Predict the structure.
Amino acid sequence: MSDVLGKSTHAAFGGMRVERVCRGDVPDYLCARGVVEPLLAEAKGRFSSIGFGTAAFKGWRSQFTRIRVVDAANVPRNTKGYIVATQFVTESQPAQTRTTSFVEDPNTEGQRLSEEQSTLLGRGVRPCTMPEYSINLASCPSRQHSIWATR
């Protein structure tokens, strides 16, 4: 994110840019699942407990309110986001404790990106993948998902 946040627009973005709205942490990444699907992502990992209702998760959600994507006409554009938070486990922890990943998909505020704008923004960033977890969040009715793995 630091490569694009608050900096002059890269020619590949077609006048689109990412702006800071207020002070505080912002999502870690501006990436793309393909040329026409740009997204924002926040990644967290810790050994302590994680949950959707925690203060920490609320803080990670608020990061998406501190930035906005604007087009060449300075109109805010809605951009898909993902929070992926993983609780790590070691063998020294109780057997019932499992490694768990929590995934939520907040959006930024603004009007929907047009197909042309998505392409302009998406082609200017590196693809981002998560090969260990392949989830089609768009097909799920809930915007929150837990994934767990056994040791």
User: Anything to note?
Assistant: The CA atoms of residues 50 and 87 lie 6 Å apart. The chain has one domain: 11-149.
